[in-house]
Amino acid sequence: MGYELRNGYLFLIIFPFVFSITYILSFISEDGLNIISFNTILWLSLYFISNFICNVSVLKQRKEEIRFYFLLTKPYYLVFAKIIINFFYIYISLLFLAILNYNIFFANNALSFLLFSLIFSLGISIINTFSAYLAVFTDNSYVISGISNLPMIIPFLLITMKISEQILINPNVFFFREIFYFGLIVFALLFLVSFFMDYIWRE
């Protein structure tokens, strides 16, 4: 993880994406788009950023290097380490985006958004990191990674959009129950990844 943090070039790649999304969100909010369209564009954009982060973090490594790491430790330890570092990159990117759009995200419901975005960042990191490791030894690894995460990412994004829409529509309400259930879903994903990673790697 220390090696990954020292290689901070990912931030240099991510920030232009964040600035682009900021411009788009500012433009569509001034244009008077409804909350559903705004919400959809926001989370789909964040999905593509997180997918890029996780793919670069995992697939940029040489296959021999990954095999060597897997010989040194259990596969799910390595995957967990990547999940944590990718979560860090995703959450920082999301917070930076929120700060640039302070009047939309933090003006009325800052606590709900902070907790929700924290859980979202962990969940999206789990899904994209796991799918990247599934594809790491295939020929078209970037394509396979994008396809293999669809069964998990589609329902995850639908739930994300549904809860965040409520947060944006009701700025003075703290959605503890919804955020708590969302957290349970993310920890269930983490359990599934830890359960299946050893088996998949052996196969």
Word description of this protein:
The structure is a single chain. The chain is mostly helical. The chain has one domain (2-202). It contains 10 helices and no strands. It has helices at residues 2-6, 9-30, 35-59, 63-72, 75-100, 102-105, 110-135, 141-148, 150-169, 176-202. Helix 3 packs across helix 5 (75-100). The radius of gyration is 17 Å and the shape is globular. The two termini are 27 Å apart. The model has no long low-confidence stretch (mean pLDDT 77).
In short:
The chain has 203 residues and is mainly α.
- Specify the structural class: mainly alpha
Task: Extract low-pLDDT stretches.
Answer: none
Question: Beta-sheet strand percentage?
Answer: under 5%
Give the domain tally: 1
Discrete helix count: 10
Span of the ends, CA to CA: 27 Å
Global shape = globular
Instruction: Characterize the largest beta sheet: strand count, sense, and whether it forms a barrel.
Output: none
Rg (CA only): 17 Å
Furnish the topology, listing elements before pairings.
Layout lengths: L1 H5 L2 H22 L4 H25 L3 H10 L2 H26 L1 H4 L4 H26 L5 H8 L1 H20 L6 H27 L1
Helix pairs in contact: 2-3, 2-5, 3-5, 3-7, 3-9, 5-7, 5-10, 7-8, 7-9, 7-10
Record keyword descriptors for this entry:
globular; 203 residues; 10 helices; mainly alpha
